Amino acid sequence: MNLKGRHLIDPNDFTIDELNSILDLAVDMKKDLSRYSNLCKGKILATLFYEPSTRTRLSFESAMLRMGGNVLGFADSTTSSASKGESLSDTIRVINGYADIAVIRHPKEGSAKLASEHSYISVINGGDGGHQHPTQTLTDLLTIKLYKDNIENLKVALCGDLKYGRTVHSLIKTLARYNNISFYLVSPNQLKLPEYIKENVKEKYNATIFETENLEDVINEVDILYMTRIQRERFFNEEDYLKLKNSYILTKDKISKSKENMLIMHPLPRVNEIDSSVDSDKRAVYFEQAHNGVFVRMALMAKLLGVV
Amino acid sequence: MLEVTSINCGIVIDHINCGNGQKIFEKLNLGNVDFPVVLLMNVPSKKLGKKDIIKIENKIDLNLDMLGLIDSDITINIIENGNISKKMNVDIPKKVSGLFKCENPRCISNSDIYATPTFTLVNKNKNKIKYQCNYCDDFTYFNQR
Ligand SMILES: [Zn+2]
Description:
The complex is a heterodimer.
Chain A: H1 16-31, E1 44-49, H2 54-66, E2 70-74, H3 88-95, E3 101-106, H4 111-117, E4 122-128, H5 134-148, E5 154-159, H6 166-175, E6 181-186, H7 195-205, E7 208-212, E8 224-227, H8 238-244, E9 263-265, H9 286-305
Helix pairs in contact in A: 1-5, 1-9, 2-9, 3-4, 5-6, 5-9
Chain B: E1 10-16, H1 20-27, E2 37-45, E3 49-56, H2 64-70, E4 75-80, E5 83-89, E6 95-97, E7 118-123, E8 129-133, E9 139-142
Antiparallel strand pairs in B: 1-3, 1-4, 2-3, 4-5, 6-7, 7-8, 8-9
Zinc ion is lined by residues 102, 104, 107, 109, 133, 135-136, 138 of chain B.
GO molecular function (chain B): metal ion binding; transferase activity
GO cellular component, one term (chain B): aspartate carbamoyltransferase complex
InterPro entries (chain B): Asp_carbamoyltransf_reg_N, Asp_carbamoylTrfase_reg, Asp_carbamoyltrfase_reg_C, Asp_carbatrfase_reg_C_sf, Asp_carbatrfase_reg_N_sf
């Protein structure tokens, strides 16, 4: 599948077949990394990070270096031309002469889309405010694919802050496009998934959604448990936070009766929502999930550069 | 009813919902022109009960998207030699560019001069017209009444 020159701003920019072609390549790259070590020789990735995100940036840089390419860029806006007041559109036009592909991280929502409108090299959205973070979604999909072979017929629980968490929004909207995925949404009442996303996935993709405030209601049924962080400042009052916080912390006890092959995922960094006692459980895949981010970014860039 | 001379060559914007006449008058910048214009407000109307009317003694360029956004009930009559030569209706535009700002303060279109705020219509209920921003996907609402 030829994706040369395309931009990735929103996971919905790609069809399921296109997404799968990236995931398939990523699976292969993970199996046989050395085979791809010269794939991007002579290619340059520009990392335009207007706000710091060390993990995302390093993951992209690692991905390009592992394919034999080079990287240039900046890590936060104070060291970039943005601090001199240059508009994003002008910056990307200049970068077009310096690099073959670019990833942009920017606090404003829609920034990557704007950059893509002024760019003839592929632009990848590395996170635009609270809006989208599509390579995180690809990372999640790859992790599911590696353990479950196919992304279909799965019961997926998402737990924590489902209101503000863009990772969760993007994952739900993308998973809903796959065959027979049912969602189990676990969150305190104040942090429920926004209505418009629920409507969207129900109407468009006929997805089934079950909502609860209690993790215990679903934890023994699901194939995937996707944990997210709940921030104290998201609560209306301290009392609610203290009352609820323990019910959204995953411990070894809580998963004692869960499915043997359930996957416990987390976009990281975690604070305390997964107790460290869970780390040694074979169902905990969140560190591997972070590693998978490199393979999926390799596959994505190789596809967009048209070198495979 | 007060008498207003009919125009000879120009444009009559009719069937404007009361209150929207002034908005359109301002948007068309009709307060700063050197040809005859008139804004009639609260005129009795069979169709609307009461309506506003704007008469312009000149064939100016009209942005139909902008007019459709403010009031999709209006009728535009082009007048030539004292007669209506053409009648036009307007719709709530399906795509709009550069006519209003995105309500999301975190949207790039509110901070980068090269990002023209662009929207797609998602709900055309006149009491709650809903546009989705092409940059940030957030919704911006309009009320025509
Ligand atoms: Zn916007």
